Amino acid sequence: MEFTGERYIPSLNGAIKYEHLHRYAISLEFVTGKSVLDIASGEGYGSALLAKVAKSVIGVDIDIASIEYAEAQYRDRQNLKFFTGSCDSIPLPDNSVDVVTSFETIEHHDKHKEMMQEIKRVLKPNGILIVSSPNRLTYSDEANYSNPFHIKELYYNDFLELLDCYFKYYHIYGQRLGTSSFIYTLENSVRDTQKSYTGDIHNLERKVCTLKSPLYFIAVCSNEDRAKEQIVDSLYIDKSDDIFKSFEYSWHQQEKALSYTQSQLEYSQSQLQQTQAEFERSQSQLQQTQAELERSQSQLQQTQAELERSQSQLQQTQAELERSQSQLQQTQAEFERSQFQPQVELENLRSRVTAMETSKFWQMRKIWFKIKNYLSLAND
To answer: Would 132 be classed as within a structural domain?
Structure first.
């Protein structure tokens, strides 16, 4: 089956595998030789495990595709059947089974009372219910996590009140992954010799300690005082899949990734410092360029002012030159007329020409040609 996140499938490893298989493992002693109903059987692997020791097992699931897959996958088990049905409408007669198992089911719907009523209906009077539920406080609130497939999760008191309404006796256990030091025989053994110890440097004692903040609740319920007959406190170990090694490998990978990230960060910081230094140098050069530009603008303004003054002087000189040219034309006309007069008048005219050449007109004419030459050079 394809894993969608809603149902566990056997191909998954890690924490989810430990959690699901451990629940079925503690159920084996309760179902030996019994008729069993496994509610929300999903892919069918759990029902098949129970069928190895149970008299008969019926797996019920609301998903038709899961039921069809389970029927095909486990069709060789003669004491195992699968039916389509819901938690509030179980397709079994009254008082028909000795044990009901329902793991990670109750949080997927909000018909909790209807589910418990149906369980009570199909259970024999002295039957046993083994049911699990995520601890909402630890699973969702403290982890700030929301499972999209969960409809109504329960706090411890909610779970307690629900069971109390339908069963006289029940015992609630906590389930979560933990880390421990194992001392074990190097040969496989069927003997139940596992011991548990806890304590610190001040005191050590043999007992099964309670871990804080369980991730899941597991309850063993009955109308007879049989809930404590079986010892449920236990460990699940998979010799082929040590989850601690998986975590350890993941930690090493994260450490490598962190080390690489730190080196990249240091390199980036070095590059940033170089970039900052270059930026500061660029800013200094920009300030220098801006100062030079301001000086150039000031010089340009001065040159423009001088040019305007030179243009004004040129206009004045041009006006005087025009007047001088007019006088020159008049003098030339008089000189031409004087050619027909006596020699005395000619001499007088020559003296007047001489006087004119030494006059202000000629001086202004010299100035005009100097300015004209200056402007021609400036334009070039």
So the answer is: yes
